[in-house]
Design brief:
Oligomer: heterodimer
Strand content of chain B: under 5%
Order of helices and strands of chain A: HHHHHEEEEEEEEEEEEEEHEEHEE
Number of helices of chain A: 7
Shape of chain A: elongated
CATH topology of the largest domain in chain B: Arc Repressor Mutant, subunit A
CATH class of the largest domain in chain A: Mainly Beta
Structural class of chain A: alpha+beta
CATH class of the largest domain in chain B: Mainly Alpha
Helix content of chain B: over 70%
Number of strands of chain B: 0
CATH topology of the largest domain in chain A: Jelly Rolls
Number of helices of chain B: 11
Strand content of chain A: 25-35%
Structural class of chain B: mainly alpha
Number of domains of chain A: 3
Helix content of chain A: 10-25%
Radius of gyration of chain B: 18 Å
Radius of gyration of chain A: 29 Å
């Protein structure tokens, strides 16, 4: 028997993966070569006692892990339950017609006395999920803030959003749910929708997933747009933007917001979820977006600063969906389809031609 | 939750050893293990769909460890930080094992001097008890490669000088 064959048999035997034939062949050999058998005994002995001195987890690791798990458990990962919610919401969509009743009762001025306000905000690089006093769920994307009165008493349920959030609103015909952003107000009635209104972006977007909502422009409240499921409304943010809080009146100076487009939400083939909402499932998605927009998204997602040195690079468009990829992996994927080079140093990304 | 904790208890040590062997940093290795288990939690409703859980978690641990290494290539301190010396110091107690401390140390040194992939394969098979197929899946190799690499490692160990010269090594050892 050749030497390497011998050791192959030995290793298979030690690891428990030797076939019966292999074991028999090895046995025969060892009977004829007892000096090798003598060598193997201590080796086998040593083999079967690993780990006495290997690096080990410090005590309390499980507790530390559970604490971390709790903190990260804000991500919506229970897909099955969400689908059930969708079906439920879809089933009652027919009764949404009642929303028209509220057009006449739309409050023009928020003259209500100040109430206790709750505010939840997220930093770049993190997301959050909260439940509102009425049971509605809100997923808050990075670098966003949502403010609402502590109790949802009064004529309606009102929240103020700066950033991006996905709303799953409990149906309550008697209490219209209103999302205020600096550019648009959205009236909802038991529905699921995504609203994106970052102050450092050009546009505000609202994508309706289920139900029906009515959107009005803050600078022109008479202009109302009804959204149907999968509708996506894009409104340009004005140069003068301010957020009116409950108890304060709406801004006096009209800003120059105007509608850009009313289209459809985008679906990639594989996902049954619109691209605009993939972030709720912890996926970073770009949908034919300029490098400029991609950079902004990545700044929030990874909590980094992205600089594009050559303005001409900004207009190239990118599409993609990333789930667990790290910043370097995403940058590499973009670089391969794009026309730039990049460097990453600590929390800064430089993109150059 | 009880099952999840049990999973952690069963798998965390092995994952920690594996991750530590790559990142060489106790805090980072523990964090990687935690990240792996966060992932496990996130997909817990679909765990039954996972073919082989051990392969799954070791693969994730490998990816996270590789990511860490890629991210920290600039900052990694080579050489002095590596605790090989520390590992040598703590040895298997010879009385338990019926082999001498010298031999145990020699074996340890041989393992540490194995080529990196060979060493990883060796550790995964011996310390974590993974099968060739599982190691192959985690490391993206063929099972044959795993088999051959392990044989190379065992041969090197089997030819340790102290082993070859066993009569003088094992004073009172009864063969």
């Amino acid at each position: 028997m050749r030497e390497d064959q011998f050791w192959l048999l030995v290793s298979c035997k030690l690891s428990g993966e030797a076939t019966a034939d292999e074991l028999a062949a090895l046995d025969r050999f060892l009977r004829d070569h007892p000096e090798m058998a003598a060598r193997l005994d201590p080796l086998s002995e040593w083999w079967s006692h690993p780990n006495s001195s290997s690096p080990a987890l410090k005590k309390g690791a499980l507790q530390r892990h559970l604490r971390r798990l709790n903190k990260s458990d804000d991500h919506p990962s229970r897909t099955p339950r969400r689908r059930r919610l969708f079906l439920f919401a879809a089933g009652i969509a027919a009764s949404i017609a009642a929303v028209f009743l509220f057009i006449n009762q739309w409050p023009q001025k928020k003259a209500t006395p100040p109430v206790a306000q709750n505010s939840v905000s997220t930093k770049p690089g993190s997301k959050s999920k909260i439940q509102l006093p009425d049971g509605s769920q809100v997923w808050l994307n990075s670098d966003s803030r949502i403010t609402y009165s502590e109790s949802f008493r009064g004529a309606g349920r009102e929240v103020h959003l700066c950033g991006e959030a996905y709303f799953d609103v409990v149906k309550d015909r008697n209490h219209p749910f209103i999302i205020h952003t600096s550019t648009i107000d959205v009236l909802v009635l038991g529905t699921a929708l995504n609203v994106r209104s970052y102050s450092n972006e050009k546009n505000t977007e609202a994508v309706l997933i289920h139900g029906s909502v009515q959107v009005s422009l803050r600078n022109n409240p008479d202009k109302k747009i009804i959204l149907r499921p999968n509708d996506k409304l894009v409104v340009q943010n004005g140069s003068k933007v301010s957020l009116a809080g409950a108890g304060r009146t709406a801004p006096k100076e009209p800003d120059t917001a105007r509608i850009i487009s009313l289209g459809k939400a985008h679906f990639k083939e594989k996902d049954s979820v619109a691209t605009e909402v993939l972030w709720v499932k912890n996926k970073l998605a770009f949908d034919q977006e300029s490098l400029e927009a991609v950079a902004l998204k990545m700044e929030r997602w990874f909590n980094v600063k992205v600089t594009i040195t050559e303005p001409a690079l900004q207009h190239t468009e990118y599409s993609g969906v990333f789930e667990d990829e790290t910043l370097p992996q995403v940058m590499e994927a973009l670089r391969m389809t794009g026309n730039f080079h990049y460097t990453i140093r600590r929390r800064e990304v430089m993109i150059r031609p | 939750m009880k099952a999840y904790k049990r999973l952690y208890e069963l798998l965390s040590e092995g994952l920690y050893r594996y991750s530590y062997s790559m990142v060489r940093n106790a805090e980072v290795a523990e964090e990687i293990v935690s990240d792996v288990f966060i992932k496990v939690w996130q997909i817990r409703a679909r765990l039954s769909e996972v073919d082989n859980l051990r392969v799954y978690v070791y693969t994730i641990a490998r990816n996270f460890s590789l990511n860490y290494l890629a991210r920290n290539a600039d900052n990694r301190v080579i050489g002095l930080n590596s605790p090989e010396a520390g590992e040598l110091a703590g040895g298997n107690s010879p009385a338990e094992l019926c082999i001498s401390a010298d031999l145990a140390n020699q074996m340890k040194r041989i393992v540490q001097q194995l080529p990196p992939q060979c060493r990883t394969i060796f550790r995964l098979v011996r310390e974590e008890g993974l099968k060739y197929k599982e190691v192959a899946a985690i490391l993206e190799l063929s099972p044959n490669t795993v088999r051959n690499q392990l044989a190379i490692a065992i041969q090197k160990l089997g030819e340790a000088p102290l082993l070859k010269d066993i009569l003088s090594t094992f004073g009172t050892y009864e063969g």
